[in-house]
Design goal:
alpha/beta
């Protein structure tokens, strides 16, 4: 039997809808909300804004076990089991992080409302009919927006202007990655940079990719976001350091671990905004009628310590644009 990691904040977390003054004598309605996370390092910290937003919306903690969290820890083999378990528990809503996790959840239920906290290209992946009219039982937030993948190329070219070939670590079977790859290729042509794709679903593939980068004259690396990359981030950052390669990732967890840069949506903001979808559904809204939102807050994080180790000088104009500089 696969060992399951389960954690519930403070052992319990209850969503108790605070009544209006006129209804103060009526019993509070307790809702049970499942959280299905692809997970990995940083998940618990990024998830805290979700809980904070629920408090702001009038929900009360530490009364009953209403928030049920299942973290796959980036391991794809766990998704089907955990999705089935949450459905069996008959939770009222499920908030999900990660495309593969959502694919497993979609197979498990077509009736329980699902809120996407961080999903890449939900239309292209077939999760919703359209952003404006999602249909079905799924709504929430996409974790990427048009132009972000191109921005990775632009930022790397800005800090490593001599780089003419970029390695792109991705999962080719991921529909969202296919779209990001197309955008990266277009940006590469505009900047006279050639992207070279490598599959990076596991440690063996990651190590083979880095071993081949020398002969391919790779000058910088883009790590396309997906759970295996997060799960193996220490390995990736170690190989980047060994091969002295500047790299960029979508979220700050890589920059904090030693990657040169990160640029992308704020995961904390996405989790926070997903709480608003939960609130609307608990109050009677149908997922099919709630348009899918896209990111509105983006973060640029630069690891200046890594830049110095690589012998790179970060332009002052870029440092001024950064939301955080790690020294």
């Amino acid at each position: 039997m696969i060992k399951r990691r389960v954690f519930i904040s403070g052992a319990t977390f209850t969503l108790l809808t605070a009544p209006l003054a006129a209804e103060a004598q009526q019993p509070l309605k307790v809702a049970q909300v499942g959280i299905f996370a692809a997970g990995g390092p940083g998940f618990q910290a990024d998830f805290e804004p979700f809980r904070q937003r629920l408090r702001e919306l009038g929900y009360v903690e530490d009364q009953a076990p209403a928030l049920v969290v299942r973290d796959a820890e980036g391991r794809a083999e766990r998704y089907s089991e955990l999705a089935t378990e949450l459905v069996r528990l008959r939770v009222d809503i499920i908030v999900v992080q990660g495309n593969v996790a959502l694919a497993a959840l979609k197979q498990a239920t077509r009736t329980i409302p699902i809120v996407m906290a961080q999903i890449g290209d939900p239309v292209g992946a077939g999760f919703v009919a359209s952003l404006a009219r999602p249909g079905g039982n799924i709504t929430g937030l996409s974790n990427m927006a048009e132009g972000v993948s191109a921005k990775w190329v632009e930022l790397l070219k800005e800090v490593a202007p001599k780089a003419t070939r970029l390695a792109v670590l991705l999962e080719p079977r991921n529909v969202a990655h296919a779209n990001m790859w197309s955008e990266i290729q277009r940006a590469g042509r505009a900047l006279s940079v050639t992207p070279v794709a490598w599959e990076a679903g596991g440690p063996d593939e990651i190590e083979r990719a880095f071993s081949a980068m020398g002969s391919e004259r790779i000058g910088a690396v883009i790590i396309v976001p997906h759970p295996p990359a997060v799960l193996h981030r220490r390995l990736i950052v170690g190989l980047l350091t060994k091969h002295r390669l500047p790299a960029i990732y979508a979220f700050r967890e890589f920059a904090e671990a030693g990657c040169l840069m990160s640029y992308g949506p704020s995961m904390a903001d996405l989790w926070r905004r997903s709480a608003d979808f939960v609130d609307k559904i608990l109050k009677g809204a149908r997922p099919a009628d709630l348009p899918v939102d896209q990111p509105t807050t983006f973060e640029l994080v630069i690891n200046l310590k890594t830049a110095k180790a690589l012998g790179l000088t970060i332009p002052s104009s870029l440092l001024q644009r950064a939301d955080q500089v790690i020294e």
